[in-house]
Amino acid sequence: MHGSMYWSYNAGFQRNSLSNKNYLHTGGRHFLYKFALSFLNPECSPRAAIIATAVGLYITTALIYVLCYVPVTLGLPCRILCNLLAFCIRAVPRAGFRTWQHLRRRREQFRRTPRIDVLLNTPLLAVVLLACISAAESCQNVDIFELKTNVCILSSTGNETCTIDTTQMLKLNTSHQQACFRIQKKGELLKEIRLEWKKLQLICDRQTIMFTRNTQQKVVDSKRCPRSGSCKEEKCARINTTALLLELRQGNDFPGVTFCVESCGGPGCGCFYISSGCLFYRVYAVPADDDIYEIFRCPRWREEVVIKMTTIQPDRGEQESVVILQPTVPQERGAAKLTLSSITIPPTPALQTPFITNGKNTAKWIINDPPTLQCASREAAKSLECDIQTNCRCQPAENSVNCACIDNNITNLFHSDLQNLLSIRRPWIEFEETFVEENITAVKATIPSLSTTEILVTIKEGFDSTFKGVTHSICTVDDDTIEGCYQCPQGAVAKIFCQSRERPTLASIVCDETAFTVPCDPQGVTSPLRFTFNHAQVRNKCESSCGGIAKHQFEIAGVLH
User: Which residues are in the Phlebovirus glycoprotein G2 fusion domain (predicted)?
Assistant: First the structure.
């Protein structure tokens, strides 16, 4: 037995060796044939012909050079050249054979192995396609709570009362502005709560920077000889910016700054003593009107989210209310309690802008330079007990001073520059005035986009379900066309006609990932359904149900502009 096995193995090995040798011989001839074909017929493969010609010219030139000009021994170079040529002849067919074997194994394995990766990727593709479907503005079907998981009590008279106590986290933002969830029992709608994002508003906590008035800068000067008037002893060394001099009494009644520079003295300047004189001058601010302005900034903004809450119940109809939520402050609306748990605001440099107000109107303060008159309070501005920051550039002359001053007419800028007067509308932010208390206004900013919030909705309510049973009524909706635009704020609208067989009720409409609640009765009710799409051709499969198991299929289709 062992001999036969050994013979079989050797025979197989010999057959494989012969076949490999035959293949190598055939592969070598095939390689030389392709090389000759490329060299002799350059039209078929011009690149290979160029390379072959270059190699041939190089080898010919090298042989001529070695044979004719270099007196060296030819044995060693010839042996090296022959060995290199033999290695190339052996290596090229061997590499081709190994490549062919590898490709053949891969091809056979591909034929035998099923495309498991394709099968595994199919559900992921479906999920991705579902996630890429544009959400409609109507309502995101967040969750459905069943009363079967809650406590129900059956009284001795046969009345069944069920109590639901649950909390749901809803995420709203400027892209997905609506979210809703439903409370059902045995397939019939008991209550639906729908929250719609209206806006995110920020209320400014004001911090006063200063009070000011519209002023004009004026200059008064006076020349004094040495040892006369205020030009005594130390002369200008004892004069500071707050000094009030008799020579400058015209400007002493207004806020200002006083300066002194040494000037010429002696008989040539009309003075008796041969010494330097004093040139006094004062820059002061004179009010141009009686208006008092306050410049303030907003180091902190109080966040408020305005939510429209809609409650739908079959026996009570539809009820709407507007809820203003502040972070961590719960708001109760009936049996529901809403709490703003978190909020995300995009970076908005415009919130650092200072504002100016005269007590009636407010505007953005756009002047880079601070105002000339700077007061600590409104009373100080009224009595002119203020400081000034002058921008005058003064050059002393012989007996007077020449000053160049720039005055900003605050009153003119405040009333004429309408683009900075509240209300302000920009694509990224809106500013307006609002009353926080009686006769007290504040700046309110609205962020129109890129904001996200999370709202906790807690419901604790009891339902008397004695009169509620499983209904087998079918709400039918006919196929309808959708009209409107795509990739636009207005969206597209489909007006459906819902008709129930038995009694007036509420129907649940589900189109892909979008859910609606519409009224139905035996005569039929028309309700608009609003969507937003990113493509022109629309063909949505929808279904309607009025409770129970029975569902009706219909289609909404159309071409948007």
Answer: 139-454
